[in-house]
Amino acid sequence: MPEAGAALLLPGDAFDTDHRQVMGRRVAGRSLATALAKHLPPGERLHLIALEAGERQRLVQLLQPALPAGSSLAISGSLNRQQLSERGCLHLPEPGLGKWTLLRSGGPAHAFSLTGIIHTLCSFGVCDALEELLTAPLAPWDALICTSTAGRSVVEHAVDAHHEALERRFGQRLSRPSGPQLPLIPLAIDPEPLRWETGHSSRQEQRHWARQQLGLPLEARIVLFVGRLSFHSKAHPGVLYRALAAAAEGCPHHPVVLLECGHFFNAEIAAAWQRLQPLYPQLVVRRLGGLNPATESEKQLALAAADLFCSPADNLQETFGLSLLEAMAAELPVVASDWNGYRDLVDHGSTGLLVPTADPLAAADPLVPDALEISYRLGLVGYDQLVAQRSLAVVVNERGLRHSLETLLHDPERCRRMGQQARLKLNQQFSWSVVAQQYRQLWGELTDRRRLAAAEMASPMQLPPHVPQGQLFRHYASQPLCIDGPWRRTALDPTLLLDPMQAATLQAWCADVEALVARLQHWPQAQALDTASLKTTFESLGVNATVQPQLLGALLKLGLLEEQA
Fold it and tell me: Shortest CA distance to 472 belongs to which of 128, 158, 145?
């Protein structure tokens, strides 16, 4: 029986969302395996590798119902070199291809291909793996699949910078290896399960039905957010709450509802959300999920009930955005931050609106790691602290977000047209019927490369210094965020800085947050504050010059400062 292009290595950590925390990479791995099984031609067999018996059993339970008639599964419990040579390709649920070349040691380099896929790219383990793409014995018949243009740019920056560092280290020009390939293949969903079997023929009837199920006003304008409810690892909610509260005031004839669908990782994060909501009494917030994740049924009802979808992501962990695809499948226009992979998904003005972002990393010295990155790599701060500090300094333009929300809240017909265009874009580019074929085509091309050429194994080389995040991620934001002003203080109460949602992270930049609050309270509102005055103030609080742009970003992000018009 023919094989389906590659053997998929699928440990439970790469697909099991029933027994493990729901995370994007696990959802993506589960979705890929299911889609490849579903789209097998008759007579083909999908080969999988799972090293634990329980994982093999769960894969059978997951994939067997998806198989078309005449196709089958073959699940192995070992990484057998001979079997891999027969399959032709091993597909990995991670970007670290280099270490897997061990499976080819002692045999021909072209015995089989290796393919992997990117997800979150900002951990130093992943950064190490990206740099190793240059020095590991990888070949043109290997490939690292990049799910977004921004993600592929990170990979290219990592490899290019590592190559330049090696040339400086050895004082000579070094040739570039011809592999691995870096194809751009997006994540995808199967849109059909997202069409609600309610007996209603129109999208508007589905919307009314879903609102009745959820107890939401039929006349309301509903803005939906789906995803982790995490201010440090997904999106800080403050800017959305402020922008939507302001937009709601301009929409007096229809109540505006923010519908959140997701889950909190712990009680502390949930408590922070509860403290945030009373600050905006004019904003109606409904939440599905919480400490217990929202169910799939609740998510489907939320997608059906909404008028538009909003995701102001501001985190380096974000690389693609599966929740945006779910919104597009539900014919919802998407208002999203102009941030990394989101740009590939949202056609600004056609399927949704992108909101500008600014990030101090985009203005940092691209050749020098900053203090946070040094501390993280030395093990002095943890990964959660890294992404929290990076995120809190990223500014999603509040005026732009408010304008985008107001534009769509006041124009239901435009919402409808954008939603239809979003669904069309999903069907054409991000549905598994399209993307599964791209995987099969890639594996076929790599097979042809193996048959046409052989390569000698290269000797491994010592790893050079790591690539700074300021170089890897400077393109994520729309523009750099520099400390140059002028700025002015807003009317917002500075004691917001003492809230646990941001106080602990702020202490990494300003040890005495209470002193910072006091200083802000004495700044005259609406009075321009030039760059020199801002720097002097920061210095008097003991804020190091290298982190002053991050602190400025936090103050802008939280709405305590704004740009002087």
Answer: 158
Is residue 491 within 8 Å of residue 527, measured between CB atoms?
no
CA distance 559 to 216: 30
Q: d(Cα 303, Cα 295) in Å, to the nearest integer?
A: 12
CA distance from start to end of the chain? 68
The set of residues, in sequence order, having a beta carbon less than 8 Å from that of 245 and lying 6+ positions away, is 280, 282, 283
User: Per the omega criterion (within 30 degrees of 0), is the bond before 252 cis?
Assistant: no
CA angle 390, 394, 400 (to 5 degrees): 165
pTM score: 0.84
Task: Give the separation between CA 242 and CA 559, rounded to whole angstroms.
Answer: 8
CA dihedral (263, 267, 272, 277) positive or negative = positive
DSSP 3-state percent helix, strand, coil across the chain (nearest 5) = 45, 15, 40
163 contact partners, CB below 8 Å, separation of at least 6: 134, 174, 176
Q: Three-state SS for 458?
A: coil
3-state class (DSSP) for residue 71: coil
Q: What digits encode the pLDDT tens for the residues 170-221? A: 999 999 888 899 999 999 998 865 455 556 668 888 899 999 999 999 999 9
Q: Distance between CA atoms of 288 and 298, rounded to whole angstroms?
A: 7
Q: Would you say 485 and 534 are in contact if contact means Cβ atoms under 8 Å apart?
A: yes
- pLDDT for 137 equals 86
The backbone region for 173, taken as left when phi is positive above 0, alpha when psi lies in -120 to 50, beta otherwise, is beta
Sheet holding 143-145, edge to edge: 72-76, 45-49, 3-9, 89-91, 113-117, 143-145
Alpha-helical regions (H) of 426-491: 432-452, 469-472
At what angle are helices 53-63 and 24-38 packed, to 10 degrees? 60
The pair phi, psi for residue 266, each rounded to 5°, is -160, 175
Q: Radius of gyration (Cα) for the chain, nearest Å?
A: 25
The total of other beta-carbon atoms located within 10 Å of residue 62's CB is: 18
